[in-house]
């Protein structure tokens, strides 16, 4: 629909952002033919672009303004002073359009933590129907299940009729996916269960949002929009940037959302709403839109000459992100890795094989992952044990940085000390990573390193550090200030330092993976290390320095419009209604009060599915 057509109609619901959550909510609300639903999306419809639908080309969209907002953090004061790139999807489907398609799962404790923070009905048992609702699970063949060691998957715990296609692609399995689960068990980690049972420890080949039939990316645009786009009550406008939610304050002081202003083609537009505005801008842009609309910290809004209609200093705070540290090795001659695509001729052959027959490695994506507890990674020094380390460091904060609330700290300390909970996730990829240019994420993986390699990405699943997202002007055309506050809590540094050392030891001393690496002790075998650090870290002290030079984002930011009691840092209530307003909700990862283990895409779909039900209940259907 054109902007002129859109603004000539008054809609029941206007959704700001056609991303992972926005299209999910829109599709579900438009199931009621009596309701009219409009979506305003700043990006394009990219469903026919091979960069989008080809699974392994995801990283080619990073830094590309046609697909990526290209956000940058501020220099990280507690790390090495570097500003890093923060990819966020721009276009129908949002970040589900550009991510690596890994379908992670929170633990039971992760979601029950939300209830403990004052959010009844958001616990593990409450949410399982929504995790099943968004997906159609394809059980692997007996042969594929054995090759990937995923016999533990239980179809009864999975969805069978949802819009997002989830499974394992039947293709030639590379050495990494084949060998990783075996290595994990040799390290003493348990044999994995289906994560839908409530926990995930061990070596996994994670499920992916790739349609096993077509071998194409399955994401919000193909799952929730394309099948429903011809509904007469479901309207979408693309290349339209939302400026703010229109709010009216009556004589009784009630603030109500009445519409949205946006620009398209340089022209301003206004769309009116009869029931609700639903902001689905994601962790970066939802707080930006609220602040630009007059909801946020009074002093900040006045600084930018914005009338403060709802004074809530919690907007944009509580930012949490999974920070990862890269470790790379050179592989032996003859070991085939993803670095073969550096040869243009081979890259063209692979692309031709995919486009003509949906064959070859481009039809799959990264899936090899280890989840492990803190006790697995901790390497004691002196008499200190893992629990004492938590108590010593978890409340040590870089001066001037955000401090987690006491409730958050108590929960996170308890969970970190629980040997049945994952404190680290390690993602393995069969290529060398160049960690020098972290402000351009595409160059991390698609680089000019003169050798083939293997890498692991070590991340802490429940970060203690806190950051923020705030406007830098009253215009949403101006990117907000993003400060994830990496390493401002010493516990994060410690978890990653110990984890990196433990995983280096694991990789280098355990076959079958070690058998594919160049002699780790030979001169010249540390080519990747020497680019950011004098030598491979061998002590915890060296590892603490290393992690602050070799880190980046895992693209999982959450928390900036936290669901919690308003007196305890909340921006939205348990129905995701913005405090102090009527007819305004936020639905996306920004409402998550505490982080969860692993990739967050499945959690965002589940949140959006639940939100749609909450909205339907409000309006009587």
From TrEMBL:
InterPro entries: FAD/NAD-bd_sf (IPR036188), GMC_OxRdtase (IPR012132), GMC_OxRdtase_N (IPR000172), GMC_OxRtase_C (IPR007867). One of its GO terms (molecular function) is oxidoreductase activity, acting on CH-OH group of donors. Belongs to the GMC oxidoreductase family. Pfam families: GMC_oxred_C (PF05199), GMC_oxred_N (PF00732). PROSITE patterns: GMC_OXRED_2. Residues 282-296 form the Glucose-methanol-choline oxidoreductase N-terminal domain. It comes from Eremomyces bilateralis CBS 781.70. This is Alcohol oxidase.
């Amino acid at each position: 629909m054109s902007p002129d057509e859109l603004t000539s109609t008054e809609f029941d619901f206007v959704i700001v952002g056609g991303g992972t959550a926005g299209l999910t909510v829109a599709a579900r609300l438009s199931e009621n033919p009596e309701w009219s639903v409009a979506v305003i999306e700043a990006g394009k419809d990219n469903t026919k672009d091979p960069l989008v639908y080809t699974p392994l080309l995801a990283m080619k969209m990073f830094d590309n303004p046609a697909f990526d907002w290209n956000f940058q953090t501020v220099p990280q004061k507690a790390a090495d002073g570097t500003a890093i790139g923060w990819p966020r999807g721009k276009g129908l489907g949002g970040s589900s359009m550009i991510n690596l398609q890994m379908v992670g799962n929170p633990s039971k404790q992760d979601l029950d933590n939300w209830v403990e923070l004052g959010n009844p009905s958001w616990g593990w048992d409450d949410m399982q129907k929504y995790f099943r609702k968004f997906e159609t699970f394809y059980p692997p063949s007996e042969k594929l299940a054995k090759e990937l060691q995923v016999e533990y998957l239980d179809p009864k715990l999975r969805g069978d009729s949802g819009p997002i296609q989830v499974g394992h692609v039947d293709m030639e399995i590379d050495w990494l996916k084949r060998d990783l689960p075996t290595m994990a068990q040799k390290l003493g980690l348990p044999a994995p269960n289906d994560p839908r049972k409530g926990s995930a420890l061990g070596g996994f080949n994670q499920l992916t949002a790739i349609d096993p039939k077509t071998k194409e990316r399955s994401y919000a645009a193909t799952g929730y929009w394309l099948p429903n786009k011809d509904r007469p009550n479901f309207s979408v406008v693309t290349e339209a940037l939302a400026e703010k939610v229109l709010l009216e304050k009556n004589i009784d002081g009630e603030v109500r959302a009445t519409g949205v202003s946006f620009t398209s083609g340089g022209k301003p537009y206004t769309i009116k709403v009869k029931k609700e505005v639903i902001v689905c801008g994601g962790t970066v842009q939802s707080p930006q839109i609220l602040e630009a609309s007059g909801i946020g910290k009074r002093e900040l809004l006045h600084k930018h000459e914005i009338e403060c209609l709802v004074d809530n200093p919690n907007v944009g705070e509580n930012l949490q992100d999974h920070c990862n540290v890269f470790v790379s090795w050179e592989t032996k001659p003859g070991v085939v890795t993803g670095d073969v695509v550096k040869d243009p001729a081979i890259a063209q052959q692979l692309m031709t094989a995919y486009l003509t027959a949906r064959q070859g490695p481009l039809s799959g994506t990264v899936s090899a992952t280890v989840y492990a507890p803190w006790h697995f990674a901790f390497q004691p020094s002196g008499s200190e044990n893992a629990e004492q380390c938590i108590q010593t460091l978890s409340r040590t904060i870089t001066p001037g940085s955000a401090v987690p609330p006491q409730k958050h700290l108590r929960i996170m300390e308890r969970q970190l000390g629980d040997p049945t909970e994952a404190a680290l996730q390690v993602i393995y990829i069969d290529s060398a990573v160049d960690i020098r240019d972290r402000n351009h994420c595409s160059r991390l993986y698609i680089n000019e390193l003169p050798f083939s390699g293997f890498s692991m990405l070590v991340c802490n699943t429940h970060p203690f550090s806190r950051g923020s997202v705030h406007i830098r002007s009253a215009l949403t055309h101006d990117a907000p200030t993003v400060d994830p506050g990496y390493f401002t809590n010493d516990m994060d540094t410690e978890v990653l330092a110990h984890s990196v050392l433990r995983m280096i030891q694991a990789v280098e001393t355990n076959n079958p993976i070690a058998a594919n690496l160049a002699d780790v002790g030979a001169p010249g075998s540390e080519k990747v290390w020497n680019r950011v650090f004098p030598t491979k870290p061998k002590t915890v002290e060296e590892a603490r320095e290393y992690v602050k030079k070799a880190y980046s984002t895992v693209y999982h930011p959450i928390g900036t419009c936290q669901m919690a009691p308003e007196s305890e840092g909340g921006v939205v209530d348990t129905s995701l209604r913005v405090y102090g307003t009527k007819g305004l909700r936020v639905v996306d990862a920004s409402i998550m009060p505490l982080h969860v283990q692993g990739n967050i895409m499945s959690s965002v779909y589940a949140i959006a599915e639940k939100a749609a039900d909450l909205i339907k209940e409000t309006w009587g259907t």
